[in-house]
Amino acid sequence: MTKLLPWLMPILFAPVGGSFVGVLVRRLPAHTPVLLARSQCESCGRTLSVPDLVPIASYLVFRGHCRICRAAIDPFHLAIELAAVTIAVWAAAVESDPVLLWIDCFLGWGLLALAWIDMDHMRLPNALTLPLLAAGLSAQAAFAPSRFVECVLGAVIGYVAFRGIAIVYARLRGRDGLGAGDAKLLAVAGAWVGWADLPSIVFLASLLALGAVAIKWMRGQAIDGAAAIPFGPFLSLAFWITYLHGPLGT
């Protein structure tokens, strides 16, 4: 049990991490304080207390309803906490170093927040991308200094490549394609995995995006060439898969 504890701790903490990710997803786009504002029931406005805020457990014990007003609680909270647990379990199945496992989990939870915000609001906030970029370069400097230059180049190349594509696309089509947030997210990926893995990440993200479009089409949803599709979720997932398992073909 003692040997398993270092790997269990991030998994046990994951619901708390997911709860905080949920706060980021809801508050960052609304420009409301992340740490200072107290959580409230979305129906009755009552300030929530400790029994209402136990991740996963509170939702299950109160059967998805507010403890006081009995209004239904948005299942978003349960979903994002379970997603955070999934990320921790996934990372624990791959990572053998308990210190690096914590780093992997925090990266995964950050990507979860970015992906969810982009799905809901079509934006990737600097308040998340820039700290993840700095964290990636810091992690390389601390744990893999021999790869530091490669990862700095990865950050620069990732950003410049996507910004260049976005500028050319906008000039040719007269509308935006890739946003600046996508370029910063690819820079984050480069900072963590290095420049050589970026083509694999972009290719995998494109495949995932095409798969999502195909599913929408098969469900009978209209597919318009001008329709905006958030690329951040697919880029985040492709980055996460590549970070844990290496580029395609390895």
Give a quick summary of the entry.
This protein is mostly helical.
SSE diagram, text form:
Elements: H1 5-27, H2 57-61, H3 76-94, H4 98-121, H5 126-143, H6 148-173, H7 180-193, H8 198-218, H9 232-245
Instruction: Provide the helix percentage.
Output: 55-70%
Radius of gyration: 19 Å
The count of DSSP E runs of length 2 or more, i.e. the number of strands, is: 0
Unreliable segments of 5+ consecutive residues? none
Order of helices and strands: HHHHHHHHH
The structure class reads mainly alpha
Number of domains: 2
Task: Output the number of helix runs.
Answer: 9
Roughly what fraction of the amino acids lie in strands? under 5%
Straight-line distance between termini: 33 Å
The major sheet is characterized as: none
Mean pLDDT rating: 89
Shape: globular
